[in-house]
Amino acid sequence: MSAISDAAGQAWPPFALVAGLLCVGAVAEAEGLFAAAAGRVTRPGRTALGVLAGLLLLDAAVTAVLNLDTAAAFMTPLMLYAARGLGVGEAPFLYGAVLMANAASLLLPGANLTNLLVLAEEPESGATFIARTLPAALAAAVVTGAGLLWWAHRTREHPVAVEPPRAPAFRPGPGTLAVVVAAALVLALPRPALPVLGVGLLTGAVAVGRAELDLARLRRAVGPASLLALLAVAIGLGTLARDWSALDDALSGLARAPTTAVAAGASVAVNNLPAATLLSAHPPAHPRALLLGLDLGPNLAVTGSLSALIWWRSATALGARPSAWTYTRVGAPLAILAMAAGLLALAGT
Q1: CB of 131 within 8 A of CB of 187?
Q2: Per the CB 3.0–4.6 Å rule, which of 48, 64, 135, 163 could disulfide with 158?
Q3: Exposed (0-12), middle (13-18) or buried (19+): which is 125, by Cβ within 10 Å?
Q4: 173 and 212 in contact (C-beta within 8 Å)?
Q5: In this predicted model, what pLDDT tens digit does every residue of 176-220 receive, in sequence order?
Q6: Three-state SS sequence of 72-102
Q7: CA 209/CA 349 separation, integer angstroms
Q8: In terms of DSSP H, where are the helices of 104-223?
């Protein structure tokens, strides 16, 4: 029974935190916060390459503060609309939305569930997390962003930008305030899950009560059934791994680079959330190298993360035609280069 309780104790706080962040993100999106930020990036006169660069930075910021699943759900439409408004090929914008979200998910602990699962045994504030991982996180994000911009440049579809579509009106409200509060809690507290969940639930309740957000829309954004199902899987795999001493013995003998490679491979094979529970049931020898593989490995294939599935659903709903092969053809080289850059940055810490 102790193995089950230990696994549950490791798994529930990350899921509670992400549920809170998804609530906050849904309300902020309804208030027009993301669209307003994207509108600032797509001002007339900018080249499409400059617009893409600005949107990738915004994507990284949304990922860091509100989780990569929030970014996949809300930034994908904005980036597609930007490409269509500019009259350029939408592929770099479409794939950039998810590839940058994955790459930037090492910037803050709440940016990716895997960060919280792996570091559950050593809870730390967001500020401490940044101090220990910032060089690797920046290296990974910069390499990925530069690669996406180079790909966009090679397509030769970046004429001078035309007038973009008008962004919806920005109506600051509880969601915008909650973004600031949630970010502060994640940065300041070593265990922010319950406070952030409380902020998210309160924000969602206020928005629904004021008819600013439909309850069904909020439920779709958060996906409570999916989160609970993933939580059950995480607890089950965590329990299994705690009784599997051979796995712990094998992982404890790995250096940083092999640890990253194993984590990336496991992410593609079984998704990075189950992989995180398996590989971190016992405190890993190289937790940040493990996170590099779990956070960046999903850029190798669409099977690697929940964010890719959310992105796929958002893209197809808007008439885009994402391709698993194009995802891997573009994402795999960037993932390998980003993980190598991250490992080099970790070597200096």
Answers
A1: no
A2: 48
A3: middle
A4: yes
A5: 898 888 878 877 777 788 898 999 899 889 888 887 787 888 887
A6: HHHHHHHHHHHHHHHCCCCHHHHHHHHHHHH
A7: 48
A8: 113-118, 126-155, 174-188, 193-209, 215-222
